[in-house]
Write a structure and sequence with these properties.
Helix content is 82%, strand content 0%. It is mainly α. The relative contact order is 0.10.
Length: 95
């Protein structure tokens, strides 16, 4: 096999590995979104605080150019939305 063919093979292998990794990440994200919907309000509030602290610590370990807030902020928004929905559902209805 020529060097060019080996490079092409390696690139295809890398592309397959990247696709598999992206699919794993998407499945994990879907699982997290589903689990967030099942957590009660006090636990969600605790999760929100812990997630905020944990993500801040994790981001501090990355160089500024690689801190992609848009990637993880969706999960923070999902937690905040779940909290807001639970709070609304627990309010006494007017009328």
């Amino acid at each position: 096999m020529s060097e060019l063919e080996l490079i092409k093979k390696d690139l295809r292998s890398l592309g397959s590995a990247q696709t598999a990794q992206l699919n794993r990440l998407l499945a994990c994200e879907a699982l997290l979104h589903s689990l967030i919907q099942l957590i009660d309000l006090p636990a969600l509030r605790t999760l929100e605080r812990h997630f905020d602290d944990s993500i801040s610590q994790a981001m501090a370990q990355l160089p500024p150019g690689t801190q992609a807030a848009a990637v993880w902020s969706d999960l923070a928004a999902t937690i905040a939305d779940a909290i807001a929905r639970r709070e609304r559902s627990q309010r006494p209805s007017a009328g």
